[in-house]
């Protein structure tokens, strides 16, 4: 048997002595990393060891697994196309060339003005799409991701972006950290980062528009951020300027506390929270 189930909260930096309950187990069966002719043994070892992923010799009949196809790592299943992270082509290229620059909503939300380029921690990195936009606008962005599956996809996407002439400078401003964001932020000094950006995933309530099968599968495998309230609290203790929470336009607040401000768009809303005073202040 080679099946494994990864909790969303699992990370290499969580001690075996840490008894803090994990927020939720994934409901999908994730098998591991498939060895294909598209990947070198060294690369396979890097991902297997770095993210604690078991290696597979043959594709499973059901469930989910990671595999390289034509040099791109993707989350695969017999029932849908591969889920990949990509900063070079497709939607990333379109946003890079036609996304609206500093006038786009995410840029205003993080406080990008004139020559000011805040240092950002994207604490729920996912597939890195918003992080890439912020980096393309000149920000230094740390992407923190605790899911080994999502982190592996980001690792692969960043490696490809660093090799492409059109994106290598942007990718150089992006640093990936494989860790539980709340734990990692708690180790950072207060005010050491300008902005903490949160885009937590929640269980589907049936009220939002149906996502593509591929993205539904990604959420099933990666899991929901049911501990996002704790993450917001820690983020406000570390951020020097603001914490930004991305939500559906009509979505509920992340916690019961009202944000200091909001930026509302057609389909999304950014809730802006002020930093909390330092305990040592």
What does this molecule look like?
With 281 residues, this protein is α/β, with parallel strands linked by helices. It has a domain at 85-273: Vaccinia Virus protein VP39 (Rossmann fold, 3-Layer(aba) Sandwich). The protein contains 9 helices and 12 strands. The protein has helices at residues 41-51, 90-98, 105-109, 129-136, 148-163, 168-171, 181-186, 213-222, 228-238, and strands at residues 30-34, 55-56, 64-69, 72-77, 80-83, 120-122, 141-145, 174-178, 193-198, 239-248, 261-264, 268-273. The strands form 2 sheets. A 7-stranded mixed β-sheet has the order 8-7-6-9-10-12-11, with helices on both faces. The chain is globular. The relative contact order is 0.15. Residues 1-27 and 206-210 have low confidence and may be disordered. Its EC number is 2.1.1.242. It catalyses: guanosine(1516) in 16S rRNA + S-adenosyl-L-methionine = N(2)-methylguanosine(1516) in 16S rRNA + S-adenosyl-L-homocysteine + H(+). It comes from Laribacter hongkongensis. S-adenosyl-L-methionine binds at residues 129-130, 145-146, 199. It is found in: Cytoplasm.
Biggest sheet layout: 7 strands, mixed
**What is the CATH homologous superfamily assignment of the domain at 85-273?**
Vaccinia Virus protein VP39
Instruction: Please tally the β strands and state the result.
Output: 12
Structural class by SSE content: alpha/beta
**Shape descriptor:** globular
Q: Low-confidence segments, ≥5 residues, pLDDT <50?
A: 1-27, 206-210
Kindly report how far apart the N and C termini lie. Answer: 54 Å
Strand order of the largest sheet: 8-7-6-9-10-12-11
Strand content: 15-25%
The rounded Rg comes to: 19 Å
CATH topology of the domain at 85-273: Rossmann fold
């Amino acid at each position: 048997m080679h099946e494994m189930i990864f909790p969303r909260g699992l990370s290499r930096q969580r001690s075996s002595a840490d008894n803090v309950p994990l927020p939720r187990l994934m409901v999908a069966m994730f098998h591991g990393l498939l060895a294909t002719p598209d990947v070198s043994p060294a690369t396979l070892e890097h991902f297997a060891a770095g993210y604690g992923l078991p290696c597979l010799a043959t594709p499973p009949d059901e469930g989910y697994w990671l595999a390289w196809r034509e040099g791109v790592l993707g989350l695969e299943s017999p029932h849908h196309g591969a889920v990949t992270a990509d900063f070079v082509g497709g939607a990333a290229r379109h946003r890079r060339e036609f996304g609206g620059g500093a006038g786009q909503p995410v840029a205003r939300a993080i406080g990008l003005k004139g020559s000011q380029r805040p240092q950002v921690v994207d604490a729920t990195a996912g597939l890195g799409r918003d992080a890439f936009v912020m980096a393309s606008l000149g920000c230094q962005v740390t992407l923190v991701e605790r899911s080994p599956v999502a982190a592996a996809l980001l690792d692969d996407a960043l490696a490809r972006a660093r090799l492409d002439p059109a994106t290598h400078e942007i990718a150089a401003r992006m640093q990936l950290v494989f860790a539980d964001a709340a734990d990692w932020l708690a180790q950072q000094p207060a005010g050491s980062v300008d902005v903490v950006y949160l885009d937590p995933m929640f269980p589907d309530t049936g009220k939002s528009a149906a996502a593509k099968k591929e993205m539904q599968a990604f959420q099933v495998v990666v899991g929901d951020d049911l501990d996002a309230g704790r993450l917001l609290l820690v983020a406000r203790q570390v951020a020097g300027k603001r914490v930004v929470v991305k939500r559906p336009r009509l979505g509920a607040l992340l916690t019961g506390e009202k944000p200091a401000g909001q930026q509302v768009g057609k389909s999304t809303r950014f809730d802006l929270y002020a930093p909390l005073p330092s305990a040592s202040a």
